[in-house]
Amino acid sequence: MKHPNHKNHQNGTGYFWTLGKHALITGASNGIGEELASHLTSVCRKLTLVARNRDGKLDQVAKRLNQIHSHRGRFKTEIQPVSLDICDTEAMSNLVHQIYEKGHEQVDIFINCASGSHVYGTLESMSYEDIEQIFDTNSKAPVFWLRELLPRMKRNKMKSSDRKRAHVVMLSSRSGERALPKLSVYAAAKGAIEKLAEAVQKEYSQYRIVFTLVNPGSINTAFTAEWDPKARTLIMQKAWLLQR
Predict the structure, then answer these.
(1) Alpha-carbon distance 37 to 40, whole Å?
(2) For residue range 86-116, what is the model confidence (pLDDT) as tens digits?
(3) What pTM was computed for the model?
(4) Quick one: which of 5, 76, 196, 238 has the fewest CB in 10 Å?
(5) 192-206: buried (b, 16+ CB within 10 Å) or exposed (e) per residue?
(6) CA 137/CA 129 separation, integer angstroms
(7) pLDDT tens digits, 16-33
(8) CB count, 10 Å around CB of 52?
(9) What are the residues whose beta carbons fall under 8 Å from the beta carbon of 95, sequence distance 6 or more?
(10) Conformational region of residue 73, where left means phi above 0, alpha means psi within -120 to 50, and beta covers everything else
(11) Terminal C-alpha separation, the chain
(12) Res 7 pLDDT > 50
């Protein structure tokens, strides 16, 4: 981490911009979402963690994050776990409304981590329901979340030292760049996120909203847990070879 006197601290665009901010993270109960929440604890003023809370996993994450403060000795971060399916547009809309209109707060950082494919197989082996679920989770849900958040984020209050009003981080996948066999539908869904991020950046940069697109490699999550163990090992090996 760079010294606080670094110019990124002075111009309000770098790491220290996150200090005291409110971050909303989807897919926060495992994988990258959980790790980011851990890193932002004692940095952000508030973390809203969204996940389906399977087997109480989200509650466990929230409990662990609340215990971090005693070890780090920094200021307190409010941890708000929210159990909902990211594809539930009514619940999503209610949450955003509760934050902005009822709570009179704002989301400074939106990190879309909830994604994955519960099926590893060829296109012809997938049911229509499988295809719909993959697109709902990886393509449609992020569009709906941004549809609710961006009109509000563009009106976020800024400090005099800030040079950006909000930051949106969209997790895509290396599959969106280099498609692998038996992940064709997932690759198509992630390709949509690539173009979504590119387009909304052009639409909202005038409001000082920054967009970051991240393409991580294969990661074991609740989705890949549904795969055959041999298939999971194979895709991890292929992903590693593609990154060399």
Answers:
(1) 5
(2) 999 999 999 999 999 999 999 999 999 987 7
(3) 0.83
(4) 5
(5) bbbebbeebbeebee
(6) 12
(7) 899 999 999 999 999 899
(8) 17
(9) 48, 50, 82, 84
(10) left
(11) 26
(12) no
